[in-house]
Amino acid sequence: METDAPTQNAEAQIALSPWQIFWRRLKRRRIAMIGGAILIVLYLVALFAGFVAPYHYERMDRDRYFHPPIWPKISGVRLVVPRYEQLPGDFVYREVPDDTQPIHFFVRGDKYQLFGFIPASIHLFGSDDNHPVYLFGTDQFGRDIFSRLLYGSQISLSIGVVGIFLSFTFGLIIGGISGYFAGATDTVIMRFCELIMSIPALYLIISLRATFPPGMSSSQVYAMIIIILSCIGWAGMARVIRGMTLSLREQQFVLAARSLGQSNFKIIVRHILPNTLSYVIVAATLSVPYYILGEVVLSFLGVGIQEPQASWGNMLTAAEDVQYLQNYPWLLAPSAAIFITVLAFNFLGDGLRDAADTKSL
């Protein structure tokens, strides 16, 4: 006897695992997939920033302050970059006719540390010093904005991932313990969470930044910012996980594990917390932009990553000057990178939330 098509589709749906069903539902959200693809590209570029960037983030071109963007041109079958000369006046440049230089790929240039520990000097593309490749122009110190944007992405993008990993790990464990044991343990932990949540994060970081030793490097300041943001951000997650754990602790699979003599730690880690992962993944994706924006705001205010280290926040300090902003709009390139990143995370987070919602189509 032949079975009809709806029955076959139902059986195929039953054969899928929950994660397979989740992935199938996520793929239907094109905006979410586009956001995920953008984030993959951004993080890959950040990982290989030293290789993709034509120059080091500290390199200064003292002959080309506030140079406008220089985009390659196609000449025959090759990419060439034109040369510009400075005119009398305040940083006014014009293209020199018939003076171009081919762009070379995989060239030697400024030294950098690939992945943070491998010495390297090969760059994806480059040209000679008389024909620089300034895709996004230069800043007030003659530094290539495109290169600094790539190096800055290593800090601005990683701080969200590292901060979320630390804060959500604390929130999962503490919230799981609070909800599982309930009673006095739950009361003490939740009151402590409320105390943490009542602390204004921005003012706390600014106050603590004043206590840092003046000789701290940017990497040390970066680590401290992550730790402080993580120590504040876990409380909200702990409250949500505690509520989910209170309902899961009475489920049949938890009662069965308890009757088999499994320890409380194993029950929490192996049976309860995995059932909260769908929410955690969605919440983490939606929370990463807040960590990124937190670093941007702190660096913009001068209490985060310091010069000459590049981050998207301290690169925007040049835009504080209205005259700079009017005459050299390419200084706002970091704001475009922030906008695209936050938008991509929100697109992906909304798609993950819809895919995890069993009531949505």
Could you explain how this protein is built, in words?
- With 361 residues, this protein is an alpha+beta fold.
- The chain has 2 domains: 52-147, no CATH class; 149-356, MetI-like fold.
- 58% of the residues lie in helices and 12% in strands.
- It has 14 helices and 5 strands.
- The chain has helices spanning 5-15, 18-27, 30-47, 49-52, 145-181, 183-197, 201-209, 218-248, 252-259, 264-272, 277-300, 312-315, 322-327, 333-356; strands at residues 73-75, 78-87, 92-102, 104-114, 118-126.
- A 3-stranded antiparallel sheet has the order 1-2-3, with no helix packed on it. A two-stranded antiparallel sheet has the order 4-5.
- A hairpin with a 4-residue loop joins strand 2 and strand 3 (92-102).
- Helix 5 (145-181) runs antiparallel to helix 6 and helix 5 (145-181) packs parallel to helix 8 (218-248).
- The longest helix is centred in the middle third of the chain and has 37 residues, at 145-181.
- The chain is elongated.
- The two termini are 32 Å apart.
Portion of residues within helices: 55-70%
N- and C-termini, Cα separation: 32 Å
Helix and strand pattern: HHHHEEEEEHHHHHHHHHH
Q: Quick check: average pLDDT?
A: 84
Q: What is the name of the CATH superfamily of the largest domain?
A: MetI-like
CATH class of the largest domain: Mainly Alpha
Number of DSSP-assigned strands = 5
Note the main sheet: 3 strands, antiparallel
What would you call the shape? elongated
The low-pLDDT segments are none
Strand content: 5-15%
For the CA atoms, what is the radius of gyration?
A: 26 Å
Number of domains: 2
Q: Please tell me the CATH architecture of the largest domain by its name.
A: Orthogonal Bundle
Helix-strand makeup class: alpha+beta
Biggest β-sheet: strands ordered side by side in the sheet: 1-2-3
CATH fold topology of the largest domain: MetI-like fold
Number of helices, where a helix is a run of at least 4 consecutive DSSP H or I residues: 14
